[in-house]
Amino acid sequence: MTVTIVGAQLGDEGKGGIVDLFGDTADVVVRYQGGDNAGHTVVHDGEEYKLSLVPSGAIRGKIGVLGNGCVVNLRTLFDELDSLRDRGIEPDVRVAERAHVILPLHRVLDGIEEDVKSESDQEVGTTGRGIGPTYEDKAGRRGVRVGDLLDPEVLRERLEYLVPQKRALVEDVYGLDPDDTEYPDAFDVEALFEEYSDYGRRLREEEMTVNAGHFLSQVREDGQNIVFEGAQGTIIDIDHGNYPYVTSSNPTAGGAAAGTGISPGVIGNGEIIGIVKAYLTRVGSGPMPTELGGVVGDTPGYEEQGEGDNEEIATYIREEGDEYGTVTGRPRRVGWLDLPMLRHATRVSGFTGLAVNHIDTLAGLDEVKICDAYELDGETIETMPSTTAQWGDCEPVLQSFEGWSDVDWASVAEKDYDALPEGAQAYLDYVSDELDTPIYAVGVGPGREESLVLERPFEQ
Ligand code: IMP
Fold this sequence. Notes:
- The protein is α/β, with parallel strands linked by helices.
- The protein has three domains: 2-97 and 210-273, Adenylosuccinate Synthetase, Chain A, domain 1; 101-203, Adenylosuccinate Synthetase, subunit A, domain 2; 276-459, Adenylosuccinate Synthetase, Chain A, domain 3 (Alpha-Beta Complex), CATH 3.90.170.
- The protein contains 15 helices and 21 strands.
- The longest helix has 22 residues, at 152-173.
- The structure holds inosinic acid.
- The site of inosinic acid has 20 residues, from helix 4.
C-alpha cells in the first residue's frame, strides 16, 4: 500500500513530522520532487535533525529514495549523510538515476536572476538553491542526470555542452564575470568534471543509485509499504500554485506518479494525506489574502503601508510557532487559515485524510479566525482564482472562533480527540466538514509523540 503526503498550503506545514509518524510502519520513504530547498525538522529520541534533502524516514532506518522528479545537490546530499553518520545514524538513501543534478552554476544563476528581477520588484524570493535553473535545464534537455555521473564519458559530454552555454548567458546577457562568483569553479568544465565524477564514484561504491520506478515496483511486489513524501506545498506547485511565485516542480499528488515511475492508479488507490498548518505561513513574496501584519521585503507594499493592527497577533504566532525558515532562517509571513486555498488543494490532490499541525501554537489567543471565502469584484467565491493578480485582489471573508488556552499538550497527545480543548475541536470539525475529509492526525507539538493520531493509514 502507498501513502502520499502533500502540503496543502504554501509549504512548511510540518510534513516531515507526519511522514515520520505514518512512515513508522512503512518500509520505504520516497521524495518525488524538489531538492535541498525543502527544509524539514525531525525530532528523534529527543535529538533534532534539520534536513533539506535526505528523506525524513531515513533517520528511522527506512530506505529513503530520491525519485526521478527530484533535483539533487550532491554536495548537500553527502554533507547531510556524513553529518548524520557523525551522529551515529546510518541512513540508507537511494537516488534515482533519472533525477537531475543541481550544479553550482545553477545556484549562481538562481541568484543572478533573482537580482535582475528585483530591479522591477518581480523576484520570487527563492531559496537560492538553484532549483529553478536546474528544472529549466531538465526541460531544455541539456541537464545532467545522476546516471550521467556514473559514466565519465557521458558526464564530460554533458558538461561540455551545458557549461559554455551558461558562461555565455552570464557574460553576454547579464554582463557579469562567470569566474568571479561565490562559487569560483562554477563555470569551469574541468573542475566540475573532477568533482562530479568523484560523486559518481562515491554513488557507485555506496550502491546508492537506482532505476526508481523499477526499484519501487519490486518493493511493492514484495508487499512492502511506501510513503511518498511531497516537499513544499500545493500553492507553490508550478501548475496549481500562484505562478510565478512558485517552485519549479509539482508537490501535488500527481507529481508522485511522474516523479517516481509508479503509476497514478497505484498512488490513487492508496491514501493521500493533506498536511495543513492550523494557520497559514508563507516564505517570500506574492499575495496572501489572510496575512496578519507583514515581513519587510516579502509582503507586497508593506514598506509603504507600515505596521497594521494585526502585527501583534502575527508576532505572537510567529514566535509561538517558531516560524522561521529551516533552510534560510527568514521570518515567515503569517495569516489566518484559508479555506478557499484548502478547497483547491483538496480537489487537486484528492485528499483522503488530513493532518492538521500546530493547533498548540494558536493556544492563548482570545479569538481565532478562518477565511471562509473571498470577495472578488463584488462576488463571493469559495475557491482560489487562477491568476495571481486576481488572488492578490481577493479580500478574505473571515469567520471568528473562540480561542483555546494552553494545556498540557503532551498528555493530550496520549489521549483521544475529546481531550483537545473544546475551541480547538470546534475549529477542526469545521475544517474537516468544509473539506469533506476526515482528520487523521492533529499535531500538538514538534515531536512525533506530540501528535494525536485518529487514523493510521497503514493499519486498516
Ligand atoms: P525555489 O524552490 O527555491 O525556487 O523557491 C521558489 C518559491 O518556493 C519561493 O517562494 C520559496 O520561498 C518557496 N519555497 C521553496 N521551498 C520551500 C519550502 O520548503 N517551504 C516553503 N517555501 C518554499
